């Protein structure tokens, strides 16, 4: 009988593209890893992983030191802002920003909310430009 984990990985490979797998792996890589390590996790050839990783670096989804890559720490904040936008109307976010206190937790929430609004505004500009 096949190992359940192997079957899940096989399904993942069948249902995703190499680009998507490298992005998923990079998005979960918090410590620097070599191209070979990321390629193995993404089930792609190292040269293909490196091509995709270099593209991810260009758009800020990954960072590189020497020949190792990881998810940049600030991308966690972007992810939180995107989730907030997904769950909450931008007008509601803007209205609630005034309700935060001035403690550390509130400053972090305010920063996430502001980032969400900035991302929303940037998306609007891109849409108008391409529209």
Distance between the termini: 53 Å
Lateral strand order in the biggest sheet: 1-3-2
Could you describe the largest sheet, including whether it forms a barrel?
3 strands, antiparallel
Output the CATH topology of the largest domain: Arc Repressor Mutant, subunit A
Structural class: mainly alpha
Low-confidence stretches: none
Q: What would CATH call the class of the largest domain? A: Mainly Alpha
Task: Give the averaged pLDDT, no decimals.
Answer: 85
- Portion of residues in helices? 55-70%
SSE topology:
Elements: H1 4-15, H2 18-27, E1 33-34, H3 35-42, H4 46-58, E2 63-65, E3 68-70, H5 74-87, H6 90-96, H7 104-130
Please tell me about this protein's structure.
This protein is mainly α. It has two domains: 4-70, Winged helix-like DNA-binding domain superfamily/Winged helix DNA-binding domain (Arc Repressor Mutant, subunit A), CATH 1.10.10; 74-130, no CATH class. It is 69% helix and 6% strand. Strands 1-3-2 form a three-stranded antiparallel β-sheet. A hairpin with a 2-residue loop joins β2 and β3. α2 (18-27) packs across α3, α2 packs across α4 and α3 (35-42) crosses α4 (46-58). The longest helix has 27 residues, at 104-130. It is elongated, with a radius of gyration of 18 Å. 15% of the residues are buried.
């Amino acid at each position: 009988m096949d190992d359940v984990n192997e079957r899940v990985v096989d399904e993942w490979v069948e249902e995703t593209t190499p680009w998507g797998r490298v992005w998923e792996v990079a998005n979960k890589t918090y410590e620097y890893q070599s191209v070979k390590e990321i390629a193995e996790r993404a089930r792609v050839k190292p040269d293909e992983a490196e091509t995709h990783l270099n593209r991810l670096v260009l758009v800020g989804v990954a960072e590189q030191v020497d020949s190792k890559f990881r998810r940049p720490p600030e991308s966690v904040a972007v992810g939180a802002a995107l989730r907030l936008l997904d769950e909450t109307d931008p007008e509601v976010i803007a209205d609630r920003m005034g309700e935060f206190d001035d403690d550390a937790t509130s400053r972090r929430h305010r920063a996430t909310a502001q980032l969400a609004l900035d991302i929303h505004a940037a998306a609007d500009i891109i849409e108008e430009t391409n529209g």
